Amino acid sequence: MLGNDNLDNSLNAYILILVIHFITVKVVKVADFGVARFLTQGGVMTAETGTYRWMAPEVINHQLYDQKADVFSFAIVLWELVTAKVPYENMTPLQAALGVRKGLRPDVPVNTHPKLVELMQKGWDADPDNRLPFSAIKMELEGLLQEIQDSGDTPNGN
């Protein structure tokens, strides 16, 4: 998704653009790098930058973080795409951040494709080491897309 030395820190559905060619989504582009930063040579960052509803616990807690913080945000974006809702919509952004620190995650609809559920749950795991790298996420999504195309099914199971 992002280069190895970039962190977006504000990844959310509002800044993504789908490039569509003949009804098939070919590319998703990040449209706003307003709070993006380069990684230090050590590969980790500190300080709280981003938007609370999509922010990883390690960022909220002012701990060291790396690309796995963007994986967390991506999992929340994936949930947004599945549900067409704003994460933690009945909370203020600060309440959402405090909830995430305590393990709160959005409820996944029961009819969601199991592979999407797994990607979301792995992506928003509290432990960054348990989150998949973007290269693995890309492979999983490509496999799911092929499965869906082969079956004629839709990702939410309908």
TrEMBL record:
InterPro entries: Kinase-like_dom_sf, Prot_kinase_dom, Ser-Thr/Tyr_kinase_cat_dom, Ser/Thr_Kinases-Pseudokinases. Keywords: Kinase, Membrane, Transferase, Transmembrane, Transmembrane helix. Residues 1-145 form the Protein kinase domain. The chain crosses the membrane at residues 12-31. It comes from Helianthus annuus. Gene3D superfamilies: Transferase(Phosphotransferase) domain 1 (1.10.510.10). Its EC number is 2.7.12.1. One of its GO terms (molecular function) is protein serine/threonine/tyrosine kinase activity. This is Dual-specificity kinase TKL-Pl-4 family.
